[in-house]
Amino acid sequence: MKLARRITGLTGGGSDGWDVYYRAKDMLAAGHDITQLTIGEHDIGTDRAILDAMHEATLAGHTGYSMFNGNLNLRERVAARVTARTGLATTPDNVLIVPGGQAGLFAAHHAACDEGDRALFIDPYYATYPGTIRGVGARPVAIPARPDRMFQPDPTDIAAQADGASSLLINSPNNPTGVIYTPDTLKAIAQLCRDHDMWLISDEVYDTLVWEGAHLSPRTLPGMAERTLVIGSLSKSHAMTGSRIGWVIGPPEAIAHMGNLATHTTYGVAGFVQEAACFALDQGAAFEAAIAAPFRRRRDLVLGMIEAQDVVRAIPADGAMFVMLDIRATGLSGEAFADHLLDTHHVAVMPGESFGSAAGGHVRVALTVDDERLARALAHLLDLASDLARDPARSPTD
User: Fold this and answer.
1) Which of 10, 61, 165, 361 has the most CB atoms around its CB within 10 Å?
2) Torsion-angle region of 46 (φ positive above 0: left; ψ -120 to 50: alpha; else: beta)
3) What domains lie within the chain, and their CATH numbers?
4) Which domain of life is it from (predicted)?
5) What angle (nearest 5°) sits at the alpha carbon of residue 116, between those of residues 112 and 119?
6) Could you report the per-residue pLDDT of 5-38, keeping only the tens digit for each?
7) Strands 118-123, 228-233: parallel, antiparallel or unpaired by DSSP?
8) Does the pTM exceed 0.90?
9) In the 8-state DSSP scheme, what is residue 2?
10) Which burial class, exposed, middle or buried, applies to 349 when counting CB atoms under 10 A from its CB (0-12, 13-18, 19+)?
């Protein structure tokens, strides 16, 4: 039987760029001691108090069908949180509860794009972005954000592709680069969306992991509340990645239609997970700060080690749980360097090329192991980079 092109073509064909990650997983399974600095997964589990709240909600009977668009008590809490954090009045009618940020991205693109529409996104990008766009039948169009601009998108590059596009997807604080888009960048993006009548889909799942500057939600800019769909989640802020709980914020009409989509796809989120999410949000800013603290500390550790040498350069790590490193002085691509690092030192990092073409010659380091193990792994990375830069004959490509 023939399968639909929409599902067989999700990844666009060829490698998805995650070969190093898959090799590292295989080596771990074979018994090798691998330091995994690949994916953005906390090295702590979900807090016991949140799990207890989930358990209690299960025993209390929250195991049946929930509201397809999210239970009112959770939508009220998310609306209050967004209002407090952004200063823009937000009500439950602006909130759709979804099973994680990824489901929010899928719903948002369904709301913004018809079959065959052009949907823009910034490169480097989170790995699922182009596949999500293809999954709704739209055509993904990557807009490179260049290393010489510290991966801040150039509005002129966006403008060159904006005519006729239905949507633009951005992510700040950014995965994979750790960059936070400046107010000037976001204001220029907002102007382009207004000028070209585009939806702006703003992935803000890292908004509590901010180390330098401040996070600005573009929904708060003039004329943007009616054309912005914001993706949020408890995965990163509350270490609840496996609970699959997030939201979309947008204008009420769009949210209502996405609620109808949920009726025909996810059929809602488990009630006991929603009750645990309510409990988690009630813990307040101090709880979120405690979740974020290790990543700030490890970011500072990595940047301190980078400053002590002159081969590897760090992209400004303003937020999120990653540091992007420029290893072009080694003469290798990000993929070749990451492969060599895994083979020689059993340290797994993600090649920049895993996130598109713009970050070629870079690697992404996830700050997701304890400080001592992270420091050892980074020392191996820096030693390898120094050896390759000093003696190109040691390159695995020779």
Assistant:
1) 165
2) beta
3) 5-45+286-388 (3.90.1150.10), 48-283 (3.40.640.10)
4) Bacteria
5) 45
6) 889 998 886 566 688 999 999 999 999 999 999 9
7) unpaired
8) yes
9) P
10) buried
